[in-house]
Amino acid sequence: MATVGQWLRNKLTPPSLEEIEHETRKWQIACKTCGRSANLWEAGGKRYKAHGNKTVLGRCAGCDNKLRTMKIYRPNE
Predict the structure, then answer these.
(1) How many CA atoms lie within 13 A of 56 on its CB side?
(2) Smallest Cα–Cα separation from 57: which of 46, 41, 44, 72?
(3) Are strands 66-73 and 28-31 parallel, antiparallel or unpaired?
(4) Per-residue pLDDT tens digits for 11-44
């Protein structure tokens, strides 16, 4: 049985960059205006241990870098 200290260390240790990258690569970001979609990690975003879709404001390359609402989602959900 794990001690309280071991349990806390497991819960409070910072994640490695590989873990964050692996998790973020599962997410996509899409423009709600033109529908252009890209991998969130390649677009410069990070999403780790997140749930549900999110709407953010961002610049879309498909809309000549105009400010648009963007949807962050997991394609398999």
Answers:
(1) 14
(2) 72
(3) antiparallel
(4) 767 888 899 999 999 999 999 999 999 999 999 9
| Domain limits for position 55 | 28-77
Cα(21)–Cα(54) distance, integer angstroms: 18
What is the Cα–Cα distance from 47 to 3, expressed in whole angstroms? 30
15 belongs to a structural domain: no
Q: How many structural domains comprise the chain?
A: 1
Residue 22 forms part of a structural domain: no
Closest CA to 67 of 31, 36, 28, 27: 31
The answer to the question of residue 42 being in a domain is: yes
Distance CA 68, CA 71 (A): 10
Location of structure tokens 């423009």: 31
pTM of the entire predicted model: 0.78
The answer as to whether 11 is a domain residue is no
